[in-house]
Specification:
There is one protein chain. This protein has about 280 residues and is α+β, with helices and mostly antiparallel strands. It has one domain (about 80-279): ATP-grasp fold, B domain (D-amino Acid Aminotransferase, Chain A, domain 1, 2-Layer Sandwich), CATH 3.30.470.20. Helices cover about 30% and strands about 25% of the residues. The chain is built from seven helices and 14 strands. It has helices spanning about 45-60, 95-100, 140-145, 150-175, 225-235, 235-245, 255-275, and strands spanning about 1-5, 10-15, 20-25, 30, 35, 65-70, 75, 80, 85-90, 120-125, 130, 175-190, 195, 205-210. Strands 8, 9, 10, 11, 12, 13 and 14 form a seven-stranded antiparallel sheet that branches. It has a five-stranded antiparallel sheet with strand order 1-2-3-7-6. The longest helix has 24 residues, at about 150-175.
Length: about 280
């Protein structure tokens, strides 16, 4: 195998005997705020790989998965990836809460009164550009004018993404969770058809326990939001924002052992409760 790319959390390899497929190796690395942390999260790669397998099988939509290899590797079809991250938001949270006024009169009613972590009147398609450094929000007109997608492709991605989010929301609700938002990625296969690609797991969505859900406050996260919150607490997020103005990035801190252990525990618990399978 030949390493094609080492990403923030997964490595991609070209297979020696198959020019139409590639191998994803889901590592235990973790990133937050576009910074790769120096501390691995035990069993994270295994959870991400098996969660992706679960969702690709469960959602019943065309995707690029071919088979699982070992605990943390997946063989997938090569795709020409669409350079747009298809984000669907079901709750008023995260970066969306800073930008919600942009959606008034378009996706949200004028009389909408937001509550932190409150459920939105309907799921909202909120795509971004796709970048190794920093993704930026993009609307339909911008996506089309930049040549990222055609009008019909944008509408297909919007409708498909919202439909997939609603399916995921129903599945996790039965397991006692809320999925607040999710990021999908799509690509074109060798026939030109658009199919679901990349992966689906706690790095691609916010997950909350229903029993602890309470609008109006920060929610207990069963995804990497736990790490984000810790980085805010220790001042690292403020340092990221400060250096971003100068075009730089800070060196990542060593993640506290208690955060590492708890993040690993929550990833495993979420997988086991939602899938009904034991790791």
């Amino acid at each position: 195998m030949r390493l094609i790319r080492r990403g923030k959390v997964k490595d991609i390899y070209e297979l020696d005997d198959d020019s139409k497929s590639i191998l994803f190796h889901f590592s235990d690395r973790v990133s937050a705020y576009d910074v790769k942390m120096a501390t691995p999260i035990p069993r994270k790669g295994e959870v991400l790989c098996k969660f992706a397998e679960f969702w690709f099988n469960e959602l019943g939509t065309p995707n690029h998965m071919l088979r699982i290899q070992g605990k943390d590797k997946m063989i997938v079809k090569k795709l020409a990836m669409i350079p747009m991250e298809c984000i669907v938001r079901g709750y008023f949270y995260g970066s969306f809460s800073d930008r919600y006024k942009d959606h008034l009169g378009k996706d949200l009613p004028e009389d909408y009164r937001p509550t932190l972590a409150g459920k939105l009147p309907c799921p909202i398609f909120d795509p971004t550009t796709k970048s190794e450094d920093h993704d930026e929000p993009i609307n339909k007109e911008q996506a089309i004018s930049k040549g990222l997608v055609s009008k019909s492709e944008y509408e297909f991605l919007e409708n498909t993404s919202i439909s997939l989010y609603e399916k995921m929301a129903t599945i996790v609700e039965k397991a006692g969770f809320i999925i607040a938002d999710v990021k999908f990625e799509f690509g074109r296969d060798e026939t030109g058809n658009i199919v679901l690609g990349d992966s689906l797991g706690p790095d691609e969505y916010r997950l909350w326990l229903r029993t602890g859900y309470s609008p109006g406050r920060i929610q207990e996260a069963y995804d990497k939001q736990l790490l984000r919150d810790w980085l805010i607490k220790i001042g690292f997020k403020a340092e990221i924002d400060r250096l971003a103005k100068e075009g730089g990035k800070p060196e990542p801190p060593a993640v506290a052992p208690e955060i590492v252990a708890e993040l690993s525990r929550r990833y495993i618990l979420a997988y086991e409760q939602i899938t009904g399978k034991i790791l």
